[in-house]
Amino acid sequence: MSRWMQIRVRVEPVYKKSFAKDFPKLYRVVTGLDNSLIDRNPTFLDLVPLVVRLSHEKTLEPGLSSAIGHYGPKIVQLHRQITEAIGGWKLGEAEKLLYELEDNFAAFEKELG
User: Fold this and answer.
1) DSSP assignment string, 10-36
2) How many Å is the Cα radius of gyration of the chain?
3) Using CA atoms, how far apart are residues 111 and 9, in angstroms rounded to an integer?
4) Which of 14, 58, 80, 101 sits in a 20 to 30 Å window from 52, CA-based?
5) Crossing angle between the packed helical segments 44-55 and 62-87, to the nearest 10 degrees
6) Under a CB-based contact definition with an 8 Å cutoff, are residues 48 and 75 in contact?
7) In whole angstroms, what is the distance from residue 60 CA to residue 43 CA?
8) CA nearest 77: which of 93, 109, 100, 43?
9) What domain of life is recorded for the organism (predicted)?
10) Distance between CA atoms of residues 72 and 67, nearest Å
11) Nearest-angstrom CA–CA distance, 18 and 54
12) Structure letter (DSSP) for residue 7
């Protein structure tokens, strides 16, 4: 490693409109937990800690509780795999896993009703 520089790989959000408009139900849920996300476009990787936080909540709406039960464990697993792939410079593998993470968040959004 260089003494004063680092090589970094970053995952950035790319939404058609915005996070709030493309995922309105999920946006409502996560901004209720963290209002710093209002008017921001977080990546799905940024949202995983909030999914974990929700999974520990005892009193959730039935639709949200069901979605967390169905998709939460897979989302957390994918987050770990993506982080490991990026850290190991396996960027092709990371990209495939990012697609899978996106699919899981899209299904999560749909299940929210």
Assistant:
1) ------SS-HHHHSHHHHHHHHHH-GG
2) 15
3) 32
4) 14
5) 130
6) yes
7) 23
8) 100
9) Bacteria
10) 7
11) 23
12) -
